[in-house]
Amino acid sequence: MKRSACIEGRSLGSIPLRCPSIVFSHGDKYNGQVFCPLHDGLCHVKRVPEMRRMHCVGSCYGWLILQNNYSTQCYLFNPTSSEKIDLPPLIHKSFDFGVLTYSPTDPSCVIVLVSKKKYSIIFCRIGDDTWSEQNLKQEGEKVGGSDIGVTSFEGKVYVFFRQWTNVIYFYQTFAYVQLHDTKKPQFSVPETCPLVKNLVECCGEIFLVYGTQSLDVFRLDLCSKVWVKVESISNQIFLVSETSSAALSATELGVKGNCIYFFHREYPCLYRFDMDDGTTTVMRPWQNKFKYWDAPLWMVPNCNFQMKRELVKIEETKDRVNKENTAIQELPTELFDSIMSHLFLDDWVRFRLTSKAWISINRPNSSVKQYKSEFQPMPWLMSFLNKKGVCNFYNPLYSDTYTMTIPELAGAIVRDAKFGWLLMSQNSSIFFYNPLTMEIIKVRDHRSYCFLNISFSSPPTSSDCIVFGYKISSSPKWAKVSVYLKKRDWWFDHSFDCADEFMASHCNPVFSDGVFYSLSKDGKLGVFYPSNGNNSGWEVLPRPAVVCFGKLISNTSTRSFIIEYDGEIFSVALGFMGTPVSVFKLDYSQMEWVRVESLGDKVAFLSHTSSMLVPAELKGVEDRIYLPKFLRNESIFYSLKTKKYHCFGNKESHADWINTTEHWNCTWIDSIF
User: Any idea where the F-box domain is (predicted)?
Assistant: First the structure.
């Protein structure tokens, strides 16, 4: 896989600074700087005196807003021209973000610094001797949450605090703040610690980018001050970091449009989220090259890089109607039933896929034949390509792909899969869907979908079916869960005090022998004992499950998965960029994990929604771990024999998953073909 080359030096002359670049400081006291132009994949390692011991709180119009790590010094610096503009000494040092209302060459330019700790701003103009301070909330008002995004447009500054949006107007000696209750947007994944969050100004519109496992994009309706979810940003790309953001024309940059580039200080890589198919691609690693690095930011020069200023199409474009021969739909239903009765199950599914009309007309019945095999069929990866119900079914062993449109699942997100059923959420509604029979079983609505992970105990056709959801908690010392009992058609909410801290992983719990097992990010096991009402129990096993998981932090780069197979519990830990890979089996007698080096004749399939362990259908595929990741449109897997990642159809092997693309709204399902 292609890696980033490093070019060292002191001069900035070798860096194409007129293109968007990633910039971060590194090393002891952050004395070194790295510039990574988006287009060439190179890391230019420099030592820029003006950036030594400075922390960048914002990047606008090609200028960096820098504040000293050890004093109240603050100034603007332009790496392209090497210009420096001194600013007044800071009032205090609790500022997190900075923004300019205009370019510093404009007399109307106002420099604004935002403190999320104090919910306040300070601002000044070039040449001022002091800063002016302004609160962002009125006395007595509560503005909760630490998440924040900042941007500017036409002289106004927009500051987003969770459900509040401040619009700040600047006058000669004071600022006027309008505080709007914009309500919390409906995120695809409940809010935990997001990988990326910020505001982006694009062609006169204000957008919010927010994401954990997946990214959501919202547009602020400037009239009603309501966040409207959007599915496309057209031919634009968004560049987003904690302290800076920009929107550019993909055509003029020569890159694919409708994509968001982002990174996070705990995940030292560049990621690209593709809004067309919902995939995330890992593009560039830096962890092993630089130590003690500061949060990266985007630097977009304010030069002759012309934007086409295309208006982003917010309203969803109308679907093109592909007119099919309606004669198919006019055939008698009895004729279809007769045809179906002579087909095997996998042929029946393929038959349906040949026509949209047949997908909706044909339903299986008891006469549909099924092949008998001594092996359990390998699971397929079901992934949703967009919000209109278009999904792919992919066979990782043979690289077969089928595309199907399921209108009932338009806008839905898959949460769990087992027993041939999908557990889906659609806004605040939860329901089961069977992709084979197209049957829908609704679940009584919860107040909102606020689950970090969710699972169910048995097929939803059973009266004993239990849905178990682990909810977002503000503290690892509290476990909050909700349980739906089908026999009582009711949700029961529980809160438990955790003597041992427990911060749940994003992978779904598993159900075995009457209890649910949840995995924490540091490898502990949480055990939930369901009852027929409010007497359920919860305990955290005191021993750390897997010491290699590292510290209990919300944004650890380790990804963990839990699997139930034939009454046994396994866990798999994947380190940063997929390495190292560790597999463990639960020893019930000691209730602790035991490392295993081989899966025997089994194959593992991992995802945050469903993970499976199944007997190998073909010789040579045992001891593999499949992930919802692709390299050049081919699936990749990890071999416990070679200790490397491999790609379907070629002899390449890799130590990690750099440059791979991952599906998010997906799940492994039992084969229906």
Answer: 325-371
Tens digits of per-residue pLDDT, 290-321? 665 677 888 888 644 433 333 333 333 333 33
Q: Which domain holds residue 208?
A: 5-299
Q: Is residue 153 part of a domain?
A: yes
- Give the separation between CA 531 and CA 529, rounded to whole angstroms: 7
Total domains present in the chain:
1
Here the CATH number for the domain that contains residue 62 is 2.120.10.30
With cut-offs at 50, 70 and 90, classify the pLDDT of residue 324. very low
Residue 618 dihedral angles phi and psi, to the nearest 5° = -125, 150
Residue 402 lies in a domain: no
SS3 360: helix
- Which range is least confidently modeled, 231-235, 541-545, 547-551? 547-551
CA dihedral 489, 493, 496, 502 (to 10 degrees): 90
pLDDT the model gives residue 18: 66
pTM of the model as a whole: 0.83
Is 359 exposed, middle or buried, given 0-12, 13-18 or 19+ CB atoms closer than 10 A? middle
What does the block give as tokens for 82? 């090497």
Structure-derived torsion over alpha carbons of residues 302, 307, 313, 318, reported in degrees to the nearest 10? -150
Is 56 inside a domain boundary? Answer: yes
The answer to whether residue 542 is domain-embedded is no
Which residues, 6 or more positions from 516, have their beta carbon under 8 angstroms from its beta carbon?
A: 455, 457, 468, 509, 510, 527, 528, 530
Whether the Cβ atoms of residue 669 and residue 433 lie closer than 8 Å to each other: no
Instruction: Give the three-state DSSP class for 30.
Output: helix
| DSSP per residue, 617-636 | SSTT-TTEEEEEEEETTEEE
